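Input record (one chain):
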Amino acid sequence: MFRAIVGNVRAVETRREIEFGSTRAPLQSKIANDCWAMTCADGKPVERCLTGKVGVNEVGVMSEDIKQITILTVDDHPLLREGIAALVADATDMILVGEATNGREAIHQFRAHRPDITLMDLQMPEMNGLDATIAIRGEFPDARIIVLTTYAGDVQARRALQAGARAYLLKNGLHKELLETIRAVHAGRKNLSPEVSFELAEHAAEEGLSPLEVRILRLIAQGNSNKAIAASLSVTEDSVKGHVRNILGKLGANDRTHAAMIGVKRGIIEI
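The corresponding structure, as predicted from the sequence alone:
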């Protein structure tokens, strides 16, 4: 699912050389937390700091006049992080300042860099993206977080938006939607992938599962029988059967297996 992002992108450490007449723009030589060490075609060093971008005005003189959007990427898949870094590297109005592989690292990286935009995966080890979003927004209420996920589930999307996410994108469309979504969220707007918007509208009027029903659905997905679920919850087997009937009815499922599949697809449970 990551090939669409990184398919024909060069390594992040080398950047396309852009010509301005007979003068060449600086080449990016490395990423740093505060400034970028730049080297011009004539060998002279130029600093490119987070306060602006190096540009060329009408008379060919370099100037720093545009503040770049600073970005933190949080995902446990290296290939996806590399793909995002490559996309961002080709955008002159934004820059990558940090990366994290789980929610705990994301909190530390956010404190260190205070990025304009955080790109947050949801399913990660140690701490998931939803808990990290809640923690970051609790400490930094103005944090602008864009959720990146594989699933268009309405329940998962609703939880993320309620936690304060400003946008919700599917990973299979990042090469088309990511950069414009970053710009939109930075400008104060919200954005959802079309598939996510459809799922939210499709299930908006439906009755949700109760916390106990979600717990039972999770146990069903783990392969437990009604008898085993009853023992686990210290209730009667007849009580479990009644809850299972309610779950099937609310989800429009044909059987227990179908209910578990719907639960995972909509983000009600994780396996």
